Amino acid sequence: xxxxxxxxxxxxxxxxxxxxxxxxxxxxxxxxxxxxxxxxxxxxxxxxxxxxxxxxxxxxxxxxxxxxxxxxxxxxxxxxxxxxxxxxxxxxxxxxxxxxxxxxxxxxxxxxxxxxxxxxxxxxxxxxxxxxxxxxxxxxxxxxxxxxxxxxxxxxxxxxxxxxxxxxxxxxxxxxxxxxxxxxxxxxxxxxxxxxxxxxxxxxxxxxxxxxxxxxxxxxxxxxxxxxxxxxxxxxxxxxxxxxxxxxxxxxxxxxxxxxxxxxxxxxxxxxxxxxxxxxxxxxxxxxxxxxxxxxxxxxxxxxxxxxxxxxxxxxxxxxxxxxxxxxxxxxxxxxxxxxxxxxxxxxxxxxxxxxxxxxxxxxxxxxxxxxxxxxxxxxxxxxxxxxxxxxxxxxxxxxxxxxxxxxxxxxxxxxxxxxxxxxxxxxxxxxxxxxxxxxxxxxxxxxxxxxxxxxxxxxxxxxxxxxxxxxxxxxxxxxxxxxxxxxxxxxxxxxxxxxxxxxxxxxxxxxxxxxxxxxxxxxxxxxxxxxxxxxxxxxxxxxxxxxxxxxxxxxxxxxxxxxxxxxxxxxxxxxxxxxxxxxxxxxxxxxxxxxxxxxxxxxxxxxxxxxxxxxxxxxxxxxxxxxxxxxxxxxxxxxxxxxxxxxxxxxxxxxxxxxxxxxxxxxxxxxxxxxxxxxxxxxxxxxxxxxxxxxxxxxxxxxxxxxxxxxxxxxxxxxxxxxxxxx
Length: 728
Hints:
It is a single chain. By secondary structure, the protein is mainly beta. The chain is built from 4 helices and 48 strands. A hairpin with a 4-residue loop joins strand 30 (427-435) and strand 31 (440-447).
């Protein structure tokens, strides 16, 4: 009786969704073993405009970098599978029975946001599909008054032995709630009237539910919205069909409007990725977790797409499935080589060029390139002729790639020793010292890679040669260790002082646009915050308007034995510190702003009777962020600005941009000097726009001086420096 009321439509079309393994069946026996999965498929639509409400697909090798198939054109003719002429919110599941299931919202928003239909589709091979349209208002009298039915998804119910379809519906005078019903054996209809599965406890709209099973429990991610709440939440239950209890708080890691969350498990990993559509800003954010309750956002530089998705799903696929996808829906300019599995390769900085058919592999110092096997990673569906160790010392090596259509092509693979960046990951505003206590160098950067410079903790790294750095861990966490600020952990500096025969370490840091101070007995901590801001407001002696209270620098004057403190953004302020290093001599506070090029990031050091003052010009989001300098005869000026005072700037030929906010280190007992600075992450940074300003990397290059003491302009390098030896 129910089936007869459906408008059933059967269609064959190529979908390039071969062999999808759904995160929705995590914890359930799957028809394809996890070890067989080697790539990821992203299914999505692209927007609300004409032709954008359609099914699109993209592939990824690592689950983080995606490239559109079919040149980002729709995979199937939308008019053929929908009544409205638009489909949204595509969700795909690999079934327990070897079939594949896709469900979609039948909605064309050009005609308004009301709809009553969803679409069910099934396939045995993800190439030929049969689809059915279900008008919920017509089929189920109880819901004849619904004004919308959104974002259907599917999961296999082990207990029932059936596929459960769940979605949100809205009735007049109420709010969106999540309902479910079981699909019939043919996956062409729903067996019975939908039942309520979940509603938001605050009685606000609840949409875009996404269920994943982990450890015997079901986690439902959903969007709730209204005047008091917004964002993505998660509710947990021991049962698939009832008993969901919301976990406190939100799991999305942004203040921006979000919707369309989906979770997938990384292949052969305990890490889960939550993705959601920041639909107003036209962005997508990924966040990772191992418990599905606590998530950490991945930075913009860690994710890449050559398309703009809306509300989609990511699922693992096998190599054979990916090959079929690529054969059916080839795209121009795909990077056929995407990386290398050899642990000696700096994966963060690999550069693939599909047009030139080249790939650049930066390799850690100390690696032999005379007999080097990069273990190349190809785009899903592409086979690479792997070779044993090759000699990369003098020239690139040619590799042959086999494509799904039976043709071959060659790539030139270049491997090169790259000492820069010196730290793995995203860090900025590096401060460096040599610890006389430990006889090591210590690097204290800003923890970067967080949207809007929103990091909340500081780390330190140690080295004996300036090349190999050991991660010493978090030394100060604003959320745990600081009572007066909990945001914007930026730009620290540090001083080692011997007081009453005992070494102490004074760590000045920016937080919430103020400057704090924490103290430790060892360079790697633990550090104890003083409990209040060291500089909480701009002193009256600083006349310039505007500018933040950030970017501290501390300097020990070897001539007088006194210590000095500098800070500022838009202005340079300086003052003498009291002997306890915990306060300034207020009467010595001086404005020292050199000229209109000054932005921030003061760095002071002493060499051969001269005091050198460095600062950063422009904005850290700008490719032209760079360093200038002046000299003085005393720690508080006045400053003498050379005519040619540029220290370091971008190098477009090497694609090095945003070189700034530096510190300087002198190897004890020598006249060897080095500049430590940050740059845009390479190669992604230059194409990122503003986010490049909070996805930065730390580099070190040699700093040299002319006979008259002037600084010789530094050319930033990819190679970095040779390891230094400390005098015995």
